[in-house]
C-alpha cells in the first residue's frame, strides 16, 4: 500500500516534520538534563534524596517522550504504524506532532508547509494503521467553496439540488460517491462538519479542505480516521476552489474493502 502514488505523496510531504523531529531529539535530552540539574543544586540542601526523586520524575518523562518521538520518526521513515497503543497514537496526533509544528512556527517556518507536513504524516499513519473498510462506512467530506460562488443553487443541505452543469468538481464527486457506494456531505464549516460526522458516524472520512481546516479537523475528529486532501485555490481562499478528483478516487480504491458495499 505504501508504494501507491498517494502514499508516496504523503511520505514526500513529511520533510519539514522529519527535520523538526530530528532537531527535537537532539536538543531535548540536553534540556531534560538542565531541567534536573539546575533545581537539584538547591534541592540537596532540603533533603539529599530530593535530587534523585526529581531525576526519576524528569528522567521518566523524558524517556517516555523520547520513546514516542522515536516511534514517530520510525513511522515517518518506514511508512508503517509502529505505535503500540491507541493511547500513544492519541498523544502523537493530538499533542506531540502539533507541539513539534508549534516549535516550527516559533522558528518562523512557513505555517502552510507545517500544516502540510502534519496532514501528510496523518495520512501516512492512517494508511498504515487502518484496514480497508466497507464502502457504506466511508464518507467524503467536502467544503462548500468547491461549488461555484455564482451558482444559484445551494447544495449543503440537499445534494440532489445540484444541477450537474459541470462547472465545478461537485458533479464529478457526486458521481464518484454513487459509483463507489460511499456517503458524501458538503459542509460550510467546522461546526457543521462535526455535526454531520456525529450523525452519520463513518469509519473513515476522506476530507477535502485547505491546510488550516484539515489540520484542525483531523485533531477534532479523533479517534475517527481522516485522510486529508488539500484543495487548490487559484482564485484565493474559500472561493471557487478545486480538487483533484482522481486523487480522491485513488484513496477510495485503496481504502474500500473490495467486494463489500
Written description of the protein model:
There is one protein chain. The chain is 59% helix and 8% strand. It is of the alpha/beta class and 261 residues long. The protein folds into two domains: 5-128, no CATH class; 132-255, Rossmann fold. The longest helix is centred in the N-terminal third of the chain and has 32 residues, at 15-46. The radius of gyration is 22 Å and the shape is elongated.
Please give a handful of descriptors for the protein shown.
elongated, 261 residues, 4-stranded parallel beta sheet, alpha/beta, 9 helices, 2 domains, 4 strands, Rossmann fold
Q: Could you name the ranges where pLDDT drops below 50 across 5 or more consecutive residues?
A: 1-11
The largest β sheet comes out as: 4 strands, parallel
Question: What's the Cα radius of gyration?
Answer: 22 Å
Task: Report the span from N to C terminus.
Answer: 21 Å
Work out the count of structural domains: 2
Helical content (DSSP H or I, runs of 4+)? 55-70%
- H-E order: HHHHHEHEHEHEH
Name the strands of the widest sheet in spatial order. Answer: 2-1-3-4
Structure summarized in a few sentences:
Helix content is 59%, strand content 8%. The chain has nine helices and four strands.
Protein topology:
Elements: H1 5-12, H2 15-46, H3 50-78, H4 86-106, H5 111-129, E1 138-143, H6 170-180, E2 183-187, H7 190-200, E3 204-209, H8 211-221, E4 226-230, H9 245-255
Parallel strand pairs: 1-2, 1-3, 3-4
Amino acid at each position: 500500500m505504501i508504494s501507491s502514488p498517494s502514499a508516496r505523496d504523503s511520505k514526500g510531504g513529511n520533510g519539514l516534520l522529519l527535520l523538526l523531529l530530528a532537531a527535537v531529539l537532539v536538543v531535548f535530552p540536553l534540556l531534560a538534563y538542565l531541567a534536573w540539574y539546575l533545581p537539584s543544586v538547591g534541592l540537596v540542601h532540603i533533603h539529599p534524596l530530593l535530587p534523585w526523586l526529581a531525576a526519576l520524575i524528569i528522567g521518566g518523562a523524558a524517556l517516555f517522550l523520547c520513546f514516542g518521538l522515536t516511534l514517530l520518526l520510525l513511522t515517518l521513515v518506514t511508512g508503517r504504524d509502529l505505535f503500540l497503543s491507541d493511547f500513544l497514537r492519541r498523544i502523537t496526533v493530538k499533542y506531540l506532532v502539533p507541539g513539534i509544528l508549534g516549535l516550527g512556527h516559533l522558528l518562523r517556518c512557513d505555517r502552510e508547509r507545517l500544516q502540510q507536513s502534519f496532514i501528510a504524516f496523518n495520512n501516512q499513519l492512517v494508511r498504515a494503521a487502518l484496514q480497508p473498510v466497507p464502502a457504506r462506512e466511508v464518507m467524503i467530506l467536502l467544503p462548500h467553496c468547491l461549488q461555484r460562488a455564482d451558482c444559484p443553487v445551494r447544495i449543503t443541505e440537499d445534494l440532489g439540488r445540484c444541477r450537474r452543469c459541470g462547472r465545478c468538481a461537485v458533479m464529478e464527486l457526486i458521481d464518484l460517491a454513487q459509483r463507489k457506494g460511499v456517503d458524501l456531505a458538503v459542509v460550510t464549516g467546522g461546526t457543521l462538519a462535526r455535526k454531520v460526522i456525529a450523525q452519520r458516524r463513518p469509519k473513515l472520512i476522506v476530507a477535502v479542505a485547505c491546510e488550516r481546516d484539515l489540520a484542525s479537523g483531523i485533531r477534532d475528529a479523533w479517534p475517527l480516521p481522516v485522510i486529508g486532501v488539500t484543495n487548490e485555490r487559484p482564485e484565493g481562499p474559500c472561493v471557487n476552489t478545486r480538487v483533484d478528483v482522481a486523487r480522491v478516487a485513488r484513496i477510495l480504491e485503496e481504502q474500500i474493502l473490495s467486494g463489500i458495499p
